[in-house]
Design goal:
Elements (H helix, E strand, L loop, with lengths): L5 E11 L4 E6 L22 E6 L5 E6 L5 H5 L5 E5 L13 H4 L3 E2 L2 E8 L4 E5 L4 E3 L4 E3 L4 E3 L3
Parallel strand pairs: 6-11
Antiparallel strand pairs: 1-2, 1-5, 2-4, 3-4, 6-7, 7-8, 8-9, 10-11
Length: about 150
C-alpha cells in the first residue's frame, strides 16, 4: 500500500494450528495494542480481523480472520501486511517518532528506506545500504533531516 495515511502495524508470518488462526508479527509498541487497532489489509476487511491472544514475551500475536477456517486457508495469507489508519494514532511526546515519519528523511546525503529493531534499539537502513544507529539522533521533522550522534 502506497497510501501515506496507512501505517504498517504487522505482518502475517504463519498459520497457527488447524482451525485457521494466524501468527502476526507486530510492529506496535506492545502486541496487546492489536486488541484496539482497526486493522486494514489488501487481503481482508478490518471487521473480519479479531485479536485472539498475545504470545508471552514475544511480539507475535494470534489472530482469527473471518472466513479463514483451516490451516491451508491461513497459510495462503502468509506475508499479508496489516495496516492501521494514521488518523487513529495518538500524538507522541516531544522526541518520539513513528517509524513511518522517519522513512524518506535524509541522513547526510542518504535517504532512510527502512527502520529496523533487532532488540538493541532502532537502526536506520539507508539507500546506500548502510545501517546506522538511531540512538541519540537529532530529528528535524520540518526539514526532513536526521543528524546522527557522533
Amino acid at each position: 500500500m502506497e497510501n501515506k495515511n496507512k501505517i504498517l502495524a504487522g505482518e502475517i508470518v504463519a498459520a497457527q494450528g488447524l482451525r485457521g488462526e494466524v501468527r502476526v508479527q507486530t510492529f506496535t509498541q506492545s502486541p496487546n495494542d492489536f486488541t484496539e487497532l482497526k486493522i486494514d489489509s489488501e487481503k481482508f476487511h478490518q471487521d473480519e480481523f479479531k485479536f485472539v491472544r498475545a504470545l508471552p514475551n514475544s511480539s507475535i500475536i494470534i489472530a482469527k480472520i473471518k472466513g479463514i477456517d483451516d490451516r491451508n486457508a491461513a497459510e495462503s495469507l502468509r506475508g499479508a501486511q496489516l495496516f492501521i489508519n494514521r488518523d487513529t494514532l495518538p500524538a507522541l511526546p516531544d522526541g518520539e517518532f513513528y517509524h513511518a515519519d522517519l522513512i524518506g528523511m535524509m541522513v547526510e546525503q542518504n535517504k532512510v528506506v527502512a527502520v529496523h529493531n533487532f532488540g538493541a534499539g532502532d537502526i536506520l537502513e539507508l539507500d546506500n545500504g548502510e545501517m546506522v544507529s538511531f540512538s541519540g539522533a537529532q530529528v528535524d521533522i520540518e526539514n526532513k533531516n536526521i543528524l546522527l550522534k557522533k
